[in-house]
Every structure is written in structure tokens, then in C-alpha cells.
Amino acid sequence: QVQLVESGGGLVQAGGSLRLSCAASGRTFSSYRMGWFRQAPGKKREMVAVVSDYGTPNYAHDVKGRFTISWTKAENTVYLQMNSLTPDDTAIYYCNAQLYMTGSWGQGTQVTVSS
Fold first, then answer.
1. What is the pLDDT of residues 83-111, one digit of tens each?
2. Separation CA 95–CA 80 (nearest Å)
3. Through-space distance between the first and last CA atoms of the chain, rounded to whole angstroms
4. pLDDT single digits (tens) 25-78
């Protein structure tokens, strides 16, 4: 069973940076697509960044150039480096592991950006 544990969220001022981590266990993740999604209050969950074993990362338009997703396979850990944060980035951030039509989610980590 896939287990995903996020960490690294917190409160940061606008313009600051945070690095989120997602520790994955329970499977060999070589065929998975790993990613970060977020959900702000009153909004739907949306894709932030995804990366697969064979492709280049994909980013949401509003984070491109500011966020970087990376996957350290030796550690089974996916990172999201977030720079130049704005209050619009405030949300709960969720790690996702997707294998074809089956997806697993972490419990989420809160990111709050103050103006």
C-alpha cells in the first residue's frame, strides 16, 4: 500500500521560499507519476507540478518559473521548491502518486503566505 507523508509547510512572508518534501513508501515507484497539488479555501484541488520517470516536469501556469519539482529516487522522496511566494499560493499542498488510473494522496501540509 502506498504511503505518502508530506512535510515542510508553514507560514512565510510574501517573496519568501519554502521546500516541501513527500516521503513515499510501500511500492517501487519507477512507473509512477509523482506530483504536488494544492487546494485553497473554497476552491477545487488543482495541479501544481508533476513529474514522471521518463518525462520532463509539468507545471501549472501560475507557478512556472517559481516552483521546481524534483524526485530523488534513491530516497523515494519528491520535493517542491517554492520561491517568490505570494498570498495566492496559500493552500493545503498534497503529494500525489499516480499509476495509470489509481492515485494515492498524502494528508497534506499547510502553506500560508502573508502579505
1. 999 999 999 999 999 988 899 999 999 99
2. 10
3. 40
4. 988 787 889 999 999 999 999 999 999 977 789 999 999 999 999 999 888 999
Residues constituting the chain: 115
Q: Is 47 exposed, middle or buried (0-12, 13-18, 19+ CB in 10 A)?
A: middle
5 and 94 Cβ atoms separated by less than 8 Å: no
Given phi > 0 = left and psi -120 to 50 = alpha, else beta, which region is 35? beta
**Distance set, CA 44 to CA 34, 38, 41, 47 (Å):** 19, 8, 8, 10
Buried b (16+ CB within 10 A) or exposed e, 58-88: ebeeebeeebbbebeeeebbbbbebeebeee
Tell me whether residue 15 is exposed, middle or buried, using C-beta atoms within 10 angstroms of its C-beta: 0 to 12, 13 to 18, 19 or more.
Answer: exposed
Q: 104: closest CA among 27, 31, 3?
A: 3
